[in-house]
Amino acid sequence: DNKDEFVPVADVLKILDRHGIIHIWYSTWSDTPALPRWRLIIPFLTPIPVSEWKPLYDKMIIFLGNPPCS
Fold it and tell me: Could you tell me what percentage of the chain is helix, strand and coil, using 3-state DSSP and rounding each to the nearest 5?
């Protein structure tokens, strides 16, 4: 889910499209006009080792324009 300080899905989709990144996104059950909620799936060609997941996730969040978690 995107956070309270969310980036609109349209902005994220522009970034992904500009870089040619394959993706799937969908709104969640808790999505409302006042508080949009959505999830993004980016498939990888190879599995990501568990030890590399958190650093990769953090880089992707910044790449997509979402402010880092505090």
Answer: 35, 10, 55
Task: For tokens 């992904």, name the residue.
Answer: 16
Where would I find the beta strands (DSSP E) of the chain? 24-27, 38-41
Q: How far is Cα 16 from Cα 64, in angstroms, rounded to an integer?
A: 8
Q: Which among 15, 19, 30, 27 is positioned nearest to 66, based on CA atoms?
A: 15
Residue 66 CA, distance from chain mean position: 8
The string of pLDDT tens digits covering residues 4-61 is: 566 788 899 999 999 999 999 998 888 888 888 888 999 999 999 999 999 998 899 8
Distance CA 29, CA 17 (A): 25
Residue 44 structure tokens: 């990888």
